[in-house]
Amino acid sequence: MTSLVVLALLVAQQAEDLPRIRITDPNRDLLKLALPAATGDADLARQATEVERRNLTIIGLFRVLDPAGFPPALQQEGLGFSSALWSQVGAQGVAKLQVTRAGGVVVLEGRLYNVGRGDAPMMTKTYRGADVRLLVHQFCNDVVLQFTGQPGVFGSRIAFAIQGRNGEIGSVGMDGAESAVLTKMNSECMLPAYAPSGREIAFTSFLRGGADLWIVSSAGGRARRVSSRPGMNSGATWFSDGASLAVTLSHEGNPEIYKIRGADGGIVGRLTKSGASDLSPSLSPDGSQIVFVSDRSGGAQVFVMPASGGAAKRLTFQGGQNTTPRWNPRADRPLIAFTGRDERAVFDVFVYDMKTGKIDRMTQNQGSNMDPSWSPDGRLLVYASTRGGLFVMNPETRQETQIHKGNVRGPAWGPPPQTR
Fold first, then answer.
1. CA-CA distance, 309 to 290, in Å (whole number)?
2. C-alpha 66: how far from chain center
3. Are 394 and 59 in contact (CB under 8 A)?
4. E strand spans, 149-270
5. What is the pTM of this model?
6. What is the tens place of the pLDDT at every residue in 203-244?
7. If you ran DSSP here, which 8-state letter would residue 332 be given?
8. How far apart are CA 148 and CA 65, in angstroms?
9. Beta-strand relationship, 381-385 and 389-394
């Protein structure tokens, strides 16, 4: 449990009847995608192959076929293609890469084939740049676009709190590569939140003794303290203008949600006035509503209210401790992910459907899983687990991949990559 929850909530111990997972065969409807080894420059091709397979596994939309089952004739055909031969190994789609270096520039040619449509590619694209990983991310985003109508978010990053007395804020690529430590606080840190631009991250640190709100560049560097009022200054989420945040402050007594300026921490307005502990705000995609946690009903439950403040509506009634709600960024997917505690005092990830009021359980029987955050396309969830590190799941297919190892909490997915 984070220090924020410890400080803010005295949760009632009560029966917790959260839903159970029932999965038959989550792989049954996944498109079977073949990813033969990239050709061209040996070192670049090896890296491109690894990145491509990692990406298209994490996305949870495909059943990536084992290349060990590809006969030599298929491995050796280069960018060419025989739909008849690939259909024999069960492939429905085939993505091919060729990577070379020309005058210091990496050139990646990618082709995507639909086995059922003959030998002509459904997509042929060439990418040029200095970093083969970035180029493969762009190709994979285009592969996802071809099959779903919406590009992928490979190349985006995830911030997280490194746990421990000498904690920091770190970040990692969504494929688990290129991890970095962003701060030099040498103190407990928690609850990072990306600004809409992706250039800054707000977080809470106990560097000066109290739970103060800080902001650091997403590239790393010296953090600046934004709010250091007595008590709590934590659980921030950014408004779409990138200039203001919703944050929990307790300087006037019990923890309440306020709107403050990111530049100087000045209070714009108080959004809750419940006399209870109100925490963990998250903005709806259109900025009109805030979902948050409150113990005004006795235990920690999820509520929603207008972004300008006002009357709140309770959303969750199952479970005695439901925390860290996060709104799906897609307006056409009115979903809220949150952490819930079950009857065994185990924390797991759940998703609440705003249209139906139905709650689906995402994780179960694999340690405690908490602090979910949506990908910027609303397709994936990242969360921390007591299994060690961060896991990414596609909630529709329930495909899960570990992307980062370590004692971390509070992941926050950043905005889409700026690669186009």
1. 8
2. 27
3. yes
4. 157-162, 168-173, 180-181, 189-194, 200-205, 212-217, 224-227, 233-238, 244-249, 256-261, 267-270
5. 0.92
6. 999 999 999 999 999 999 999 999 999 999 999 999 999 999
7. T
8. 19
9. antiparallel
